[in-house]
Each structure stands twice: as structure tokens, then as C-alpha cells.
Amino acid sequence: MNVTEANPADLPALCRLLGILFAQEAEFQPDAARQQAGLSRILADPGVGTILVLRDEEIVVGSVILLYTVSTYLGTRAAVLEDLVVDPSWRGQGGGSLLLDAAIARAKAEDCGRITLLTDPDNAAAQELYWKKGFAVSSMRAMRLSL
Prior knowledge:
Elements: E1 2-5, H1 11-24, H2 32-44, E2 49-56, E3 59-71, E4 76-86, H3 95-109, E5 112-117, H4 124-132
Parallel strand pairs: 4-5
Antiparallel strand pairs: 1-2, 2-3, 3-4
């Protein structure tokens, strides 16, 4: 398995993976049209973010998204890591770790001083992976306003 940058031909596989992810999250419902629109915006503008895919040969079996912003505290770019997902039939083979390592390396290459992410409180496997890679729980609380 290897990690590469996504391209427009990967959109169907990416939408399928997001459908898997959002179906297991209490706060979200899959909507392929919306997911495709969001993914297309990221692919069209590298300044917005980067989508990385995990491939086995040519098959996309996982993905992760980095979205870029600026931290006024750090005075540098910062990244928001979203939607780390590996196809259930490919889990347990180190793919999530490969994706996370690649995302961290890409954030460093993009001169990001920090990566922030949200994780479901009951997703112990994801949290364990993040802790192993050096992430720490923030005292900040996530809040959202849907517009």
C-alpha cells in the first residue's frame, strides 16, 4: 500500500469512503452529491487543502483530508485534519498509520505549525492512533453553527 495525492478520477472512491465514514458518525449523514462538491472544491484549489489517498495497486482503500488556514497565535499556516477513513475490509493493516504519517509530512511541507482534528468520543481506535502519533487532547471545546 502507498499514499499518493488524490486526483479527480478518485472522486467516486472518495465519495464511497466518506459514505462509510459518515454512516458511522452520529452527527453526519452521507450525501454523495454534497461530498463530491466539497471534494471537487479541494481538488480544484491546492491552497484550500490536500486530499491524500491510500492505494493498494490502483484501488483507493483509504483517504485523509488536510484543510489549510492561518493561526494568528502561531503566526503560521495551520491544518485541519478531516475525514481519515480506511475501507473496513482493509483495516488492521497499517493503512490508517500510513495516511496519518503522510498527512503530518504534508502539513510540515506546507509550513503548517499545527494540525487540529476532531474525533468522535467513542472512536477509541482512532484516538489511539492519534495519541501514538503525538496528538494530545486540547482543552478547547468544539462548537458549530450550521448556516
